[in-house]
Amino acid sequence: MLSQFRVNAIGPALVAKHFLPQLDRRSRTAAVFLSARVGSITDNKKGGWISYRASKAALNQIVRTASIELARTHPNAVVTAMHPGTVRTPLSAPYSKGHPTVSPEEAATSILRALDRQTETGKFIAYDGSPIEW
Q1: Check: CATH 2.60.40.1120 for 2-126?
Q2: What is the pTM of this model?
């Protein structure tokens, strides 16, 4: 569990702490943090993966809180948590049987498109821009 939190919550929190204040205050800027649909507390219908789910839920709270705080000084900044879809990687291989997957390149393209269309800060969205409940 500690390992999952280090990677999925503590690392991104440190990135947010040190990187987000450096964003331009006058123009539209954006920062995306890779979450996962399984980090949604509302959407959890199957259980399992306690450490991973909890670490992604923690990330979502970090992103939401950071977006609120950043909006005070950076009104044009968009900070979002994003589910990239099931990306074909060694991590997802054991769990993706029967589920549609995308290549890392396809995921990156979708992430950039969705982020480009995002106008509200502090949201949890999927790779296609659709909202995900926290």
Answers
A1: no
A2: 0.92
